[in-house]
Amino acid sequence: MITKMKKTLLFMAHPTNDMQDDLTALGRLGLMHISPFQPAKDESIERVQSRIEQLEKAISILDNCDDTDATSSVKVDDYTHQERGEIALLERVLETNRTNKELQKQIAELSKDKQWYDSWGNISLDDIKIINSNGIFLKLYEIPEKDLKDIRTQENVQIVGQSNRVAQVVLLSEDKEAALNYHPIELPGNSQKEVEQALNDKTAKLSSGKQLLLQLSAQRELLENALDERKRRLKVRTVQYGGIAFHEKVRCWEGYVPESKVSDVTEAADKNGWGYVVSDPQPDDYDSVPTLLHNPKWTDKIKPVMNFMGLVPGYDEIDVSKIFLVFFTFFTGILVGDAGYGLIFFALTLLAHWKSGFVKKIEFGLFYTLSVSIMLWGVLTGTYFGAETLANIPFLKQLQVSQLASFGGDNLRIQQFMFLIGAVHLSIGHIQKGLKYINTVLVIAQVGWVAIVWGLYFMVNKMVLAIPAPEFMPWLFIGGAILVALFSSPGQPLLKGILSSLGNLPLNVINGFSDVISYIRLYAVGLSTVLMASSFNDMAIGDGITTIASGALAVVVLILGHALNMALAAMAVLVHGVRLNMLEYSGHANVEFSGSEYNPFKINKI
Question: What parts of the sequence cross the membrane (predicted)?
């Protein structure tokens, strides 16, 4: 259920030396969701944000420091006992990292020069300069071997080496502008000896720099504490400058507090000398009131799905968590519908859970639940890796529901069952909406909609499946339409309300018809999963296994085929399982997920 909120205006003296302390006290209380009056802007905020970025970068550098090239220990200062030691440590880490980055660039350039000498040999740059000064100009080329026949006849061209189908060619000419029709090879800027010496020096310095970072990483906690403190300051200052100042004497904030926690906030206000005004949110405020859900523990399993899709019901909407979880679990079982796949999903979840040390996480609970649902539906339909042979094992066959069986079942009844699920699901949405207005005549209109939904169910059965409709079906539409027309607009004059409701009714009924039909996707996707699994089985072992090679190929086809099928089934759960809850059901429950999550201003106690 959605927790009731109280709108709260909070006043603090401003400016005072104690404002930081007051806001810190409010943050440590951690109960007030603050809606800023204005964007928080101040130079102090920009400075803190900049420092946070630097600290995060420094911590990341220390996390990723590499000790593979570190050869010796480097003595470093102990910054933990220095005044503003975290800043000195921060600057040392960033400066060392900058130096290391520059050394890496220089080493890369020197390595290219070394490769040049390794390829062309110990060529003296001074000798080349002397030759050039005497009027003979030397140019180097690397030419594909297939082109050598075109230049071998030239007297001023010498081939000095060949490797990997590329020839090294030297052009000697008294004409400075003479050139071959190829891109010349540039000479290094330093001699081979200078390159090797510089490379050794730079490599040694880089190794020392890496060792320095490795030594500094022992004081990483100092940076982490500084980062936590700066984040606390940023929270405080963001809240501070998001409030409105009156005559530079009082600053005010608007926010929302859970009804059950209002007394904690007012007691803290009285203790610290804050002013406050507490009131009930008005309908005009509902768009800005945050949503705090309070449900039984078992419903937490649906939170990962809701968070992934960004689904938060509005403050004035109904909480659909319980129904969403129940039907999402049910839909997952039908959409995948293979007990073998469910067992694999369960085993993979168990393995991941074991590797995490069996840490308590909602995600693991969700995956266990979905895996069990898949296995149960697979058992009821007799589906085990899409193999009919396994389904016909006597023990397993006894567990099947014959009408629902994937092999030899009654497809007509299965489709009818899917439409039945849809009618029940949509009816629950209207019932929940009616319970929201239990003290008004709007609940009667929702009773009318439930009647219309069941009329649509019978109509769909007749039109799609050719199942005869009961004689009372027209009365479901007639009675439902009358109730909807009379009680959907209680705040308007009777005639105007009836005409308004009747005007919207045809389109709403058509939408309801398509919503009921859309539940056939459960049957279609579930059937496709079975057919694909069966097809991969036929591809792998349809003609039997006669040789070791055919056996190995069959194993590969089975593994890859079923892996692909499981991946597609998992995608179908996200697409269709979520859609039926988020659109069809939520549309009938009038839930638009237009809310924002309750996120109080909170500072952890140190």
Answer: 323-352, 364-387, 414-431, 438-460, 472-495, 548-575
Q: Give pLDDT, residue 68.
A: 60
Write down the residue that tokens 């768009």 correspond to.
Answer: 287
CA angle 54, 60, 66 (to 5 degrees): 130
Alpha carbon distance 53, 485 (integer Å): 60
**DSSP-assigned beta bridge partners for residue 158:** 170
| 59-93 confidence digits (pLDDT tens) | 999 988 766 655 556 677 888 888 888 899 999 99
Q: Please state, in angstroms and rounded to a whole number, the distance separating the CA atoms of residues 238 and 44.
A: 10
**Distance between CA atoms of residues 535 and 531, nearest Å:** 6
Domain range summary for the chain, segments of one domain joined by +: 124-186, 318-590
DSSP conformation class of 293: B
Separation of first and last alpha carbons in the chain: 33
Alpha-carbon gap, residue 223 to 92, rounded angstroms: 12
Q: Are 377 and 345 in contact (CB under 8 A)?
A: no
Please say whether the beta carbons of 432 and 449 come within 8 A: no
Give whole-number Cα distances, 115 to 109, 111, 128, 199, 222, in Å.
Answer: 10, 6, 19, 12, 43
Helix (H) or strand (E) holding 229: helix 220-242
- pTM, to two decimals: 0.77
Token couple for 537: 């089985």
Answer yes or no: are the C-beta atoms of 423 and 453 closer than 8 Å. yes
DSSP letter string, 466-507 = -PPPPTTHHHHHHHHHHHHHHHS-TTS-HHHHHHHHHHHHHH
Q: Distance between CA 59 and CA 51 in Å, rounded?
A: 12
Q: What are phi and psi of 168, to 5 degrees?
A: -95, 125
In contact, 39 and 307? CB cutoff 8 Å: no
CA separation for the pair 463, 225 (Å, rounded):
68
List phi, psi (to 5°) of 40. Answer: -80, 115
Q: E-strand spans in 89-156?
A: 137-144
Which positions of the chain have pLDDT values less than 70?
A: 14-18, 66-74, 152-153, 490-497, 499-501, 503, 543, 605-606
User: CA quadruple 327, 329, 330, 333: dihedral positive or negative?
Assistant: positive
Instruction: Supply the DSSP symbol for 187.
Output: P
Given a contact cutoff of 8 angstroms between Cβ atoms, the answer to whether 28 and 603 are in contact is yes
Residues 363, 183: Cα–Cα separation, whole Å:
60
